[in-house]
Amino acid sequence: MDVSGGALGGEPQAQHSRRPAPGQTRALPRRPSRQYTGAMHSPTLCPDVAVLGGGAAGLWALARLRAQGHSVLLFSAGALGDGQSVLAQGILHAGVKYALAGDDGAERSLAAMPAAWRDCLAGRGAVDLRACRLLSEHMYLFAPPGPAGRLRGAAAGALLRGRVQRLGTAQVPPALRTAGFRSALYRLDEAVLDVGSLLQALASPHRQHIYHLPAKGARLQRRDGLAQLQLPGCRVRPRLLLLAAGAGNADLLAQLGDRETAMQRRPLQQVVLDPGIDLPLYGHCLGSGRRPRFTVTSHRDAAGRTLWYLGGELAERGAQMSPAQLQLHARAELDEVFPGLQPDPARLRCVPAQRAEARQRDGARPAGAYLEAVHGVANALVAWPTKLALCPDLGERLARALRRRGIAPGPQPDPAPLRTLEQPQIARPPWERTA
Q: Residue 157: in which H helix or E strand, if any?
């Protein structure tokens, strides 16, 4: 999106009213029932909701609201999921690792998410995800070898009693047996999704409502306290504008004159490697600190080879390392925990990522999803899901916000003025990109 347009709608940007709650702004006039209005030969499209951002949060909002009959248009500046979403490991966290860390807020936020996702994957939830591919029904929780690791494993098992299942030797998965694993092992009720298929499942039924924002000629404006999107040949004036662009929200908020809603970035550097065995593994390795020492998920590249994708504390600490340093560190971690593993050093890559979230006073991760009114704009909300697993929660909050604002489902605008815009493709996963 072209962000060089300067002042927004000619309004003073230094004057702001008190921030309203998502459902407590002044009532908006109902838009005309006709499909679009014209002004000075430039048609105006008036959907119930316009979404800016084509990641998991924006696509979930599109699917969730269209399932309720709302007219929705989604605009993405890049490929769908490009950035934070496509770099996610796809874990549907149930809050277990946050319970280990004593993070009660995050644990509570995530506790209900596995059931919500299961309903969607079965086709009976708020969003139909039957086309999404499930990589694993569960994650493992395991301790590193040695006396200290055994103590950590025992402590974790005691803390999580009733939420994890202790596994015996006969139940150790093939990947761990082959890798020479010898320590405590538990099974968690945390499924793992293929993120690419999730994005596809969310987008495919609504392709005719998803558009690529051109690099030039697109401007976000504020007029008379309302947000609108100016596009080449038309404008979009929604009853509600949702900013769901991840790191891009900072620029969008600035264009709307909101200087008070703040965003924070927390960097990661994850690792993709060929483990040298054609066996998948999904698990959290316990560490000495508050986070998993590393978290591993498995994926197949275009050639069908099994790759392991490492996150967790390794990725957070890795953000402060050079790629060469992180590669050495990752090899050392794997050598200690999996002495029988022989990963291919030529196929080990570092994947930098940025987590964009609502700013916290201490810079820590927010406990839950964020959805709040844009300051000084009556018809705009800004959202950060915080975790992929919290998308259902964010969708429910958004649906409630529309009900509180009295926005009932309206007709879908005629797409004719948008036909010059391209349709974005699904972003490629990091292991399918050129290094």
A: helix 147-159
**Domain's final residue, options 305, 323, 355:** 355
Facing residues of 186 across strands? 141, 166
3-state secondary structure of 130: coil
Question: What DSSP string describes 18-74?
Answer: PPPPTT-SPPPPPPPSSSEEEETTEEEE--SEEEE--SHHHHHHHHHHHHTT--EEE
Q: Tell me, what DSSP letter sits at residue 428?
A: P
Using the 3D structure, point to which of 355, 376, 405 is the last residue of a domain.
Answer: 355
Asked if 51 contacts 246 with a C-beta cutoff of 8 angstroms, the reply is: no
Domain that holds residue 213: 1-132+193-262+359-435
CA distance 136 to 274: 19
Task: Write phi, then psi, for 92 (nearest 5 degrees).
Answer: -90, 80
Pairing of strands 139-142, 283-285: parallel
Residues ≥6 apart with Cβ < 8 Å to 45: 35, 36, 73, 234, 235, 236, 237, 413, 414, 417, 418
Per-residue pLDDT of 146-157, as tens digits, reads 655 555 555 555
Residues 200 and 245 in one domain: yes
Per residue in 303-342, pLDDT (tens digit) is 999 999 999 999 999 999 999 999 999 999 999 999 989 8
Do 111 and 211 belong to one domain?
yes
Q: How far apart are CA 347 and CA 308, in angstroms?
A: 11
The packing angle between helices 195-203 and 56-67, to 10°, is: 40
